[in-house]
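Job type: complex structure
Entries:
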Amino acid sequence: MRLKFDEELNNLNREMILMGSMCEDAINTAIRALIKGDPDGHKNVSAIVTEISHKEREIEDMCLKLLMQQQPVATDLRTISSALKMVSDLERIGDQSDDIAEIVSMQNISDADDKYEILDLGQAASRMVTGAVDAFVKRDEKAAREVIKEDDTVDDYFDKIKKELAKSIQTDEAGLEKTLDLLMISKYFERIGDHAVNIAQWVIFSVTGVLEGNTK
Amino acid sequence: MTKQIFKHMQILITIALVAAFAAVLGILYSYFGVVQEGQVRSEAKLAAQGVEADGISYLEKLDLDTTRVTLIASDGQVLYDSEADAVTLENHADRPEVKAALADGEGTSIRFSGTLLKSFVYCAERLSDGTVLRVAEPRDTALNIAAGMIPFVLMLIIILMVCMWFAARRVAKHITQPLNQLDLDHPMENNEYEEISPLLKRIYVQQKQIADEKGRLVRIERDFTAVTQHMAEGLILLDEEGRILNMNNKAGKLLNAGDVYIGTDILALERREKFRKVLAGALLEGEHGETVLPYDRLSYQVDVTPVLDGRKVIGTVVLLFDVTERETAEQMRREFTANVSHELKTPLHTISGCAEMLESGGVKPEDQKKFVHLIYTQVQRMITLVQDILYISHLDEGAVDMNCVKIDMCLMTNKVIESLSHEAEKKHVSVSLESDGEVIYYGVARLTESIIFNLVDNAIKYNKEGGAVHVSLHAGAHTVTLKVADNGIGIPEEDQSRIFERFYRGDKSRSREIGGTGLGLAIVKHAAMLQNAQIRLDSRLGEGSTFTVIFPEKAPDEKAPMIV
């Protein structure tokens, strides 16, 4: 009985890793599209995001089945319930990557020469996602805390970019659409960072049993 | 075991007791029958004597308990009965004991009395007057006897059970102790019970087999571990679910696995998309797959091979090996091809353009010469380029004649300077040579010449108008040093590490007007490498550059031919 349960927990773990890596792929593909200003990037990201949505359903089903059939307690219960919460954050990360790629595909920002700051922000957000997935995979509380700490960097980047874009709205009225697109992309990256923080908090919960912080 | 022994003893004892009890009962029953019969007979005799003496009144005076006395007339009529009224009783002439008494003087019979529902022992005695006196006593039934014995028997059973409990324990212990103390590590040394020796023998044989097998497995594992742990490649074995069965140190290092990795999902250590794809291909489709992944700035080829049992995938072997060199070489080759085509295309465009203009007649007659000259110089450029490319690919292939000869370095350098004097004059660059006496180097003539040529050529080309090139030769204790210094444009610091690369040009905007193929220093580097010579570069932007080549000492070979 326990053997079967363990097997199912292993499967759950594997599916979570897969979904996590898909999200990494999604955000990295979006960033690549942003660097190259590639309108086709949106197609690639969308394909990944569809897969992510399927995976989310699959994992939710798995978790509910496990909860009903095995009635887990203690660590197992924490693992399953945090997996349930984490998939929705992962799914949001995928969606927001898709949104970024979509904005890139509109080609308003293809001639923007001030993307570098945003790319830094994007890389930081991507690092956070990778860190969060890593922390989950290794059940590493320390790594999870580092992810939470890195959110400050992302927030700083975002504030800086926001100020600069606000300035450019005043000076350059022709490029208003471009500026707004850049702002949206920055916001999406910032949100991705927040979701990574949520995931990290759920990792800490599943390891220590203590749910901390203000889950956004 | 003790329980079994106890149970069986219990059953045995119960059976024995019951059997003994039944036997004793049977014996006692018949014994009591005989005794009672004798008793009743003697009672009858006594009563008969009493009646002979006192008549019937004797009987009436008797105080009787269970004994019944009957006096019967010779015709069978009952004269007296101690328990019933004589008149009511039927004729007793047909009773067997009465019959026997009338005939023989005495008779005995044991019968079941229908009136009293009991067995009785009857003894009849004929008196002298012909009447018969009969004495009857109820017979003890077997049940009565048994009932009398039951308390004793029960007590006996309890006592026996208690004794048996202790006995059984002792016996069981006694029997099982040698079994418990069997030394199963050395089964053949036990000889307590002959009955279990086949078992012990079997254990002995199997133990030996197991030990042999274990030794074999340990050896195999040791060999396997020794081989895999010292491999330069990373090796990972996965089960059919993709969990790690084993992996060697190298793979552990590459994947950053901690100490506890057996049983963890491989995806927990490596989850990049390329890897996931080939792994899924191997696990689900049973297909061999390979991909290249970067690890710590090195490129590793990852081969994923499924282990098949029939058509079923039972595991996967993942092999990681360093292909950085191959990848770099491939990239260099790609770049080289791209560069060569680019370098060849540029003069071709000029030639084609000039030729087209000439053909269409759109060139003024006085300009024609200029165009033809342009075509000529571009063709010359292409020839030099192709020569250089051919030369460097010769060097690459190692197809150069490596025969060492005795080289007079001063003579060779002078020749080179002479051949370049035209170029130097055009740029008004003075070239001087300084050497301390005769400098002899035993080396490959062509390589050495190309080093000197390219360095001096560069020093002239990348020089200012009216600059100076100073070449010096010095024979050290174990080395020959060639120094080419100029006071030209110099090389910026960030380019210094790259100028020996093929087609790398420091200042791209100026390189075209200067000419050259971009292969000169690559050739110098290669030629120096083949002769184990070292190159040093000391340069400052705007002040000039100094290239120093230090040729290692070679055993002086007087027989080597001198080149002139």
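Summary: The mean pLDDT of chain A is 86. Residues 125 and 193 of chain A are 5 Å apart (CA to CA).
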